[in-house]
Structure formats: structure tokens, C-alpha cells
Specification:
Elements: H1 12-28, H2 30-54, H3 61-88
Helix pairs in contact: 2-3
């Protein structure tokens, strides 16, 4: 038996409802998601510091942490500056 082809097109109302539901869930879960995101970023930064401190250059722990933190803060500041300039324009 041959089945008729099912349309792959979804309705705009369904897409909008899914978008609103996802935004609502993210808004309600922000108390958990924001600290979780900061923890993940901090873990990545500290892992990079551990890599610098144990590689062949033999950097001490404090200079590696300072270097990674300065680079991270500069990158975040640069992204924030670009977003600020775009919003002002």
C-alpha cells in the first residue's frame, strides 16, 4: 500500500508557540542557568590555566591565571563594546 506524502511544512502558529515556550522556560530557569554558565566558563578558564602551568614552558600558576583572566576579560569587554556600539547606532 502506498502512503500519501506528508507535508514537511510546519505552521507559523506552531513555530511561534514553540519559540514562546522556549523563551518562557529559559526565563524561568535563569536562576539556575546563569550560575551554571559561569561555572562552565570558570572551569574552562581554570583548565586552560592548568594547561599553561604544566606545559614545557613551566609557567607558574599565578602568571597563568592572570594571563587567562586578562585575555578572557579583554575578549568579553571587546564583545560588549561591539554590542554597545551597535545598539547606540
Amino acid at each position: 500500500m502506498i502512503k500519501p506524502a506528508v507535508s514537511q511544512r510546519s505552521s507559523g502558529v506552531r513555530t511561534a508557540a514553540i519559540l514562546v515556550a522556549v523563551i518562557a522556560i529559559l526565563y524561568l530557569a535563569r536562576a539556575i542557568l546563569i550560575p551554571l554558565a559561569f561555572a562552565i566558563i570558570l572551569t574552562l578558564v581554570l583548565d586552560a590555566c592548568g594547561g599553561l602551568a604544566t606545559n614545557s614552558w613551566v609557567w607558574a600558576r599565578l602568571p597563568s591565571v592572570l594571563l587567562i583572566m586578562v585575555v578572557s576579560i579583554a575578549a568579553a569587554g571587546g564583545v560588549g563594546w561591539v554590542i554597545f556600539i551597535e545598539l547606540v547606532e
